[in-house]
Specification:
CATH class: Alpha Beta
Shape: globular
Strand content: 15-25%
Number of helices: 11
Number of domains: 1
CATH architecture: 3-Layer(aba) Sandwich
Bound molecules: S-adenosylmethionine
Helix content: 25-40%
CATH topology: Rossmann fold
Largest sheet: 9 strands, mixed
Structural class: alpha/beta
């Protein structure tokens, strides 16, 4: 369910309960009441991405082309100004919704967007979206997949392809295995292995591996940046 400029709270607890991996692995980043206070800082999210937040944010927005209107779904909140920048480019004829499983993150989103914004906030699970098939023209997954266990990642990708209309776009920005000589390779391996245990999957396998069997999506472009540590997919939904 979507409500303009307010958080739509679903009553379906089976689909909106906090997933165990979030509580177990990411409590400190998203679930804990102080998480938003600590992490909602532009300089910090930029530091976590080694100064690449702005470049990756702008690349995602460029691929989504929000200026041409249509309906865009951002799947999961992101600390920093990604949603604000995306929303600023959505014309009157367009629509931007953000879905997240944590009310605390959706509340934070409401607070950081400018007064009078038109961004819809949806309380829901990326793995079971309460959204009709083909309801959106495009969707964005910005650093979500590496935080999810494989079964949830598969379900999220399947749902993203389902809710975007045929011919629409799915843009994915996430981690990737950096080149062997990357100066941060050893450090990032330690950080991800210990703090973000599912993230190493993205070092070892392409995201295509988790798309649903028989999908008709087409990868229009796949680019690496910052020595291969980050990747961006532009996918046309079939
Ligand atoms: C997009 S990811 C990571 C973004 C990035 N690391 C940042 O700087 O914010 C973080 C968000 O994903 C949300 N999330 C995680 N699993 C989810 C799921 N199954 N469904 C919906 N939202 C989910 C979390 O609640 C959190 O707000």
């Amino acid at each position: 369910m979507r409500v303009d400029a307010a958080v739509a709270r679903s009553t379906n607890a089976a689909q909106t309960g906090i997933p165990s991996y979030l509580e177990r692995v990411y409590w400190w980043a998203y679930v804990h009441p102080k998480a938003v206070y600590v992490f909602e800082r532009q300089w910090l999210v930029n530091l976590i991405l080694w100064g690449n937040f702005g470049r990756l944010r702008d690349r995602a927005i460029e691929l989504l082309s929000p200026g041409i209107g249509g309906k865009t779904l951002q799947i999961a909140c992101v600390y920093g100004d990604l949603t604000g920048r995306l929303a600023a480019q959505v014309p009157e004829t367009g629509q931007l919704d953000v879905v997240d499983i944590l009310p605390v993150q959706l509340d934070n989103l409401q607070r950081k967007l400018p007064a009078g914004h038109r961004v819809g906030a949806i309380h829901g699970n990326s793995a079971h979206l309460d959204v009709a098939d083909g309801a959106y023209d495009q969707a964005l997954l910005f650093f979500l997949l590496h935080e999810q266990p494989e079964d949830v990642r598969r379900a999220t990708l399947s749902e993203a392809l389902r809710v975007v209309r045929p011919g629409g776009r799915l843009v994915i920005v996430d981690y990737h295995q950096p080149k062997k000589t990357h100066p941060l390779r050893w450090l990032m391996r330690q950080v991800l292995t210990h703090l973000e245990p599912f993230a190493m999957d993205l070092w070892h396998r392409p995201i295509e591996d988790w798309l649903p069997p028989g999908h008709r999506a087409k990868v229009l472009s796949h680019s690496l940046s910052f020595g291969g540590l980050y990747q961006v997919y532009d996918i046309q939904v079939g």
